[in-house]
Amino acid sequence: MVEEDSGRPGGRHELLANIRRLTIAVLDNLEEGSRDKTLDQGQKRLLSSTGSRLLRLWKSTLKDDAANQARGQARKTPLASEELKRSLTS
Questions:
Q1: Which residue, 63, 64, 67, 33, is CA-closest to 50?
Q2: How many structural domains are present in the chain?
């Protein structure tokens, strides 16, 4: 059973590192197999589509991280109306 830890900051970094490592391995295998002509068309398509999916996953994960950071910053910054209420009640 896999424990879900992607919510932790370290978990996200580890996830990105694992995706990156796997992407590099897949793309290296595709490049080497194409250069050496050891892959047939089906294998090339499989490695290409796997590499594309991994790159999309990596991009999506980075985008989610950026959105989460933006939301976190927005929560830390009080609204002008909240500041006005505080100043009036003080």
A1: 33
A2: 1
72 in a structural domain: yes
**Domain ranges, residue 16:** 9-89
The pTM of the whole model exceeds 0.85: no
Handedness of CA 24, 51, 31, 29 (dihedral sign): positive
Question: Hunting for tokens 């989610």 — which residue is that?
Answer: 64
pLDDT of the chain, 90 residues: tens digit per residue = 344 444 566 788 898 899 999 999 999 999 999 999 999 999 999 999 999 999 999 899 888 877 777 777 666 665 566 666 666 666
In a domain, 1, yes or no: no
Q: Annotate 64-87 with DSSP letters as a single string.
A: HHHHHHHHHHHHHS--HHHHHHHH
